[in-house]
Design brief:
By secondary structure, the chain is α+β, with helices and mostly antiparallel strands. It is 20% helix and 24% strand. It has 4 helices and 7 strands. It has a 7-stranded mixed sheet, with helices on both faces. A hairpin with a 2-residue loop joins strand 6 and strand 7. The site of coenzyme A has 18 residues, from strand 4, helix 3 and helix 4. GO terms for molecular function: aralkylamine N-acetyltransferase activity.
Length: 226
C-alpha cells in the first residue's frame, strides 16, 4: 500500500473575494484559509484543546507532545482553519491499519494503513455554533478523497456527539474498545474511495470556495462520484 507521504495534493487556500484584486499585491493576511498544520501550530492547537477538553474533563484527546508527534509524522493528515492569522478550528489525523481502533491508535501513526484515524476536531470557543466544525470536516473528507491510499476515516466520540458526526456522513461502527478513565466511546466511520485522486484537475481538487454557510449543511455524506 502506498504511503500518502509525498502524494499530498495541494490544499488550495481559501481567501475572501475582496482580499486581493487582480494585479494587486496583498498586504494583509488572507481573511480565511485552510491548510495543513505544522509543529509551529502545536501551541495554538493545544490552547484550543485546553479550553475545549481539559477545562471540562481534565484531559484531552492529544497532549501537547502528541500534537507535536503527529504534526511531525503526518502533517498532511491535519487541517487548520485560519482566519486573519488565527487558528479557529482544526483536525488532526494519522493512519491506522486495522479494522477497529485499539489503544495503540491513540499514539501511533501507521504509514501503510489505509484508514485515517481522526484524533480530534475542535473549534475555538468563540467560533462555535457557527457551522465551522461541519464545514472543516467536510473539507477534510473531500481532501482525503484525493489521497490514493486512503479508504476510510474513523473516529471515536462520546455518545452525545454521534448525531453531530452522523450529519457529516459518519456511520456507527459500534462500541469502541478504547476507554479513557471512566469514559467510553462510540466508533464511527466514513467511506473514502480515493478515486478522486485520478481526477485531481476536476471537481475533487478544486475545493469549494465557501462563500455561504448554505454550502455546509448535511451534504458531507453525499457522494457525487460513481
Ligand atoms: C463539537 C464541535 C467541534 C462542533 O463544532 P461547531 O462549529 O460548534 O458545530 P456547529 O456550529 O454545527 O454547532 C454545534 C453542534 O455540535 C454538536 N454539539 C456540540 N457540543 C455538543 C454537546 N455538548 N452535546 C451535544 N451536541 C453537541 C451539536 O450537534 C451542535 O449542533 P446543535 O446546536 O444544532 O445541536 C465544537 O463544539 C467543539 O469544538 N467542541 C469541543 C471539542 C469537541 O468536543 N470536539 C469533538 C470531539 S473530538
Amino acid at each position: 500500500m502506498m504511503s500518502v507521504v509525498g502524494t499530498t495534493p495541494f490544499i488550495k487556500p481559501m481567501t475572501s473575494p475582496s482580499s486581493v484584486s487582480p494585479g494587486q499585491r496583498r498586504h494583509t493576511l488572507p481573511a480565511s484559509e485552510f491548510r495543513p498544520l505544522n509543529t509551529q501550530d502545536a501551541i495554538s492547537v493545544f490552547e484550543i484543546e485546553r479550553e475545549a477538553f481539559i477545562s471540562v474533563s481534565g484531559d484531552c484527546p492529544l497532549h501537547l507532545d502528541e500534537v507535536r508527534h503527529f504534526l511531525t509524522l503526518c502533517p498532511e493528515l491535519s487541517m487548520g482553519w485560519i482566519e486573519e492569522g488565527r487558528l479557529v478550528a482544526f483536525i488532526i489525523g494519522s493512519l491506522w491499519d486495522q479494522d477497529r481502533l485499539t489503544t495503540d491508535a491513540l499514539t501511533l501513526h501507521k504509514p501503510h494503513g489505509s484508514t485515517v484515524h481522526v484524533h480530534v476536531l475542535a473549534v475555538h470557543r468563540t467560533f462555535r455554533q457557527q457551522g465551522k466544525g461541519p464545514i472543516l470536516m467536510w473539507r477534510y473528507l473531500q481532501y482525503l478523497r484525493c489521497l490514493p491510499s486512503v479508504r476510510r476515516a474513523v473516529l471515536m466520540c462520546e455518545d452525545f456527539l454521534v448525531p453531530f458526526y452522523r450529519k457529516s456522513g459518519f456511520k456507527v461502527l459500534g462500541r469502541c474498545a478504547i476507554t479513557v478513565a471512566n469514559l467510553s466511546f462510540t466508533e464511527m466511520w466514513y467511506p473514502i474511495s480515493g478515486h478522486a485522486y485520478m481526477r485531481r484537475n476536476s471537481e475533487a481538487i478544486r475545493f469549494p470556495q465557501l462563500t455561504s454557510p448554505l454550502e455546509r449543511p448535511g451534504t458531507a455524506g453525499e457522494r457525487t462520484d460513481t
